[in-house]
Q: What sequence folds into this?
């Protein structure tokens, strides 16, 4: 038992018992022999937590009709690999221990917990399966959107009915060099063969198929869905640069703005960051960066814009003209910058070649926000 | 950790003089820095061996030993490994080997060959310790050998030499995010300052994108060791290699984001060495294909 307490196994059991269906699946899948004392202890712990957490489980069930573990969907054997019986479960508090100081990415989205499975083989390197359970499909999409590189893979889950295709098409899975990344509802999955081979690739894809089996694919975040393919034929959307995010750390890894969280981003925010290629001649032809932010409230958006103006446009904010309105276009070192706040929505456009194009981008952003408001998303 | 908070914006970079490696100068950002000495000359040694990794990336320890021998010889000017180590550390030193243990970890074979050759040079085995960890680990050592692995990092741009000592601060999270520019501060803490005798970067199979988990698409067999006694100069060469690899992958400049603020700051603010390519003398030994620098 002492060993159990120190390992991820115990962590999983203690965390997992809150969710009755999940823990019962674990019990069914266990094949290891354990002593009767251990069984008694675990049953006691299960009963204690089950009684204590009924209301919590009920609340969660309302918000998440998907199972919180898909361990039974995962094949026990795939090719020459065999899955271990008990996954590790990592909560927010433990993610830094698991990733040794690099969990900020996942905590930058609304992270619930991580489930880790390992497939072992006698003569091949292992295959690691990480299942990141997020609060919403938007959060899981955001994690995939951090890198659209790799080969798009068609796994078998049906696409949700949607009237508008997201700008990134219908990409839900990407494979490259042994790593398969999947966005499936509120689940983001990484399946990685430590050593890629044809055999390991087949196994990785088979595991991916099993993970998405029976799960529906909700549409991309509304801010992403509404991005136009172009802002006049001069500026075309770069789909591989679309990122959905909530955290300024993630923003900085995409488009570095400041060492400080100038836009007061946080888990309550929805942000689409992307760029548009320009057909203008070389000197003016660099991509234009567009940032669309939905804040929890109008006041949040107002304060964030002030914060941004105070630091990023300091000389204008503190200058004699008192540049601090809700809309503006200004020329700075790397081009024209535009901003526009309406209610709880804020649009920012960077590196425009001229004032007119900044206006066009802000107009387009206003239309996007309006469509979302009208659709009540 | 000092209380002063740095606020750096994109505009600060655009205003500044563009440097080749770090991407931008911080001097124009209004940040108080120490004036760099005008004529520094730091040596960085790059050793590569075509057969140090096999097709499955397994390490050939004999080739690695040969690479370490070449590196030490070039850094110290000594004719053999024993004299080379003895010129860097004393036999009564307590030597801490500071490896990287996550996200593209230092190869165990490199740690082993460093340890073995130190013992052969006359250091008692009990005086050679694995020193990655809290400040107590650094405090217990009289000499440190930094053994980081070459990699980008999603919070600090680069996560190789300077970041390798982050746990010596006892407060790693204080140096993440917007405070990563201050990583050099750790190297000047009393229990760390002056103890680093050599930096040997494991560039056998680097990672050129940021993580937080290793993505095999961004790892490649570079088959190199990069070493020197100036940690900032070594980091600057590492940065150059990462940026060149990224550009080669994308076919266009692919800057690190966030920018690796810590490198130039380690030079201009903390005085740990030079981040200016014109002050770095790069010695290349061994295999030269696709060296990127």
A:
């Amino acid at each position: 038992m002492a060993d159990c307490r120190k390992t991820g196994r115990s962590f999983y059991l203690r965390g997992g018992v809150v969710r009755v269906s999940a823990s019962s699946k674990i019990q069914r899948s266990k094949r290891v022999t354990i002593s009767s004392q251990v069984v008694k202890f675990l049953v006691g712990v299960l009963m204690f937590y089950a009684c204590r957490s009924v209301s919590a489980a009920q609340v969660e069930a309302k918000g998440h009709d998907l199972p919180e573990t898909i361990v039974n969907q995962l094949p026990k054997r795939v090719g020459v690999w065999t899955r271990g019986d008990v996954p590790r479960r990592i909560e927010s508090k433990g993610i830094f221990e698991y990733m040794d100081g690099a969990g900020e990415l996942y905590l930058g989205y609304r992270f619930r917990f991580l489930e880790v499975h390992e497939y072992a083989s006698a003569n091949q390197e292992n295959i690691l399966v990480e299942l990141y359970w997020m609060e919403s499909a938007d959060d899981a999409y955001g994690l995939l959107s951090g890198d659209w590189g790799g080969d798009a893979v068609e796994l078998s889950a049906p696409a949700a009915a949607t009237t508008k295709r997201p700008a990134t098409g219908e990409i839900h899975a990407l494979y490259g060099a042994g790593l398969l990344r999947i966005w499936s509802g509120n689940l983001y999955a990484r399946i990685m063969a430590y050593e890629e081979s044809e055999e390991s690739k087949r196994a990785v894809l088979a595991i991916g198929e099993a993970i998405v089996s029976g799960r529906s694919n909700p549409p991309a975040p509304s801010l992403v869905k509404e991005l136009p393919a172009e802002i006049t034929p001069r500026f075309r959307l770069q789909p591989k640069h679309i990122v959905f995010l909530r955290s300024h750390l993630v923003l900085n890894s995409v488009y570095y703005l400041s060492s400080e969280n100038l836009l007061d981003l946080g888990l309550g925010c929805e942000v689409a960051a992307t760029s548009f290629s320009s057909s203008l001649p070389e000197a003016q032809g660099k991509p234009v960066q567009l940032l669309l932010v939905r804040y929890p409230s109008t006041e949040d958006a107002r304060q964030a814009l002030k914060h941004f103006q105070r630091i990023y446009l300091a000389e204008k904010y503190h200058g004699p003209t008192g540049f601090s309105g809700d809309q503006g276009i200004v020329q700075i070192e790397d081009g024209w910058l535009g901003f526009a706040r309406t209610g709880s929505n804020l649009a920012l456009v960077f590196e425009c070649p001229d004032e007119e194009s900044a206006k066009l981008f802000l107009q387009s952003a206003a239309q996007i926000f309006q469509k979302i408001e009208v659709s009540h998303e | 950790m000092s209380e002063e908070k740095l606020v750096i914006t994109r505009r600060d970079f655009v205003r500044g003089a563009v440097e080749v490696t770090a991407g931008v100068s911080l001097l124009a950002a209004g940040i108080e820095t120490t004036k760099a000495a005008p004529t520094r000359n730091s040596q960085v040694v790059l050793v590569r061996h075509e057969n140090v990794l096999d097709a499955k990336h397994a390490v050939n320890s004999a080739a690695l030993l040969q690479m370490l021998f070449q590196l030490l010889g070039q850094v110290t000017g000594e004719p053999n490994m024993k004299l080379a180590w003895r010129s860097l550390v004393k036999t009564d030193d307590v030597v801490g080997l500071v490896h990287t243990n996550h996200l593209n970890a230092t190869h165990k074979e490199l740690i082993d060959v460093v340890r073995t050759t130190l013992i052969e040079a006359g250091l008692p085995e009990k005086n050679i310790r694995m020193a990655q960890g809290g400040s107590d680990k650094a405090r217990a050592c009289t000499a440190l050998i930094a053994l980081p692995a070459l990699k980008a990092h999603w919070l600090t741009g680069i996560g190789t030499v300077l970041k390798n000592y982050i746990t010596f601060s006892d407060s790693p999270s204080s140096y993440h995010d917007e405070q990563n520019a201050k990583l050099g501060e750790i190297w000047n803490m009393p229990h760390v300052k002056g103890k680093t005798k050599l930096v040997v970067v494991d560039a056998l199979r680097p990672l050129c994108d940021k993580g937080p988990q290793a993505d095999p698409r961004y790892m490649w067999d570079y088959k190199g060791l990069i070493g020197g006694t100036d940690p900032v100069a070594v980091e600057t060469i590492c940065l150059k290699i990462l940026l060149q690899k990224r550009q080669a992958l994308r076919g266009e400049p692919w800057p690190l984001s966030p920018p690796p603020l810590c490198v130039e700051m380690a030079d201009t603010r903390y005085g740990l060495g030079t981040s200016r390519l014109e002050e770095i003398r790069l010695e290349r030994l061994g295999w030269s294909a696709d060296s990127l620098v």
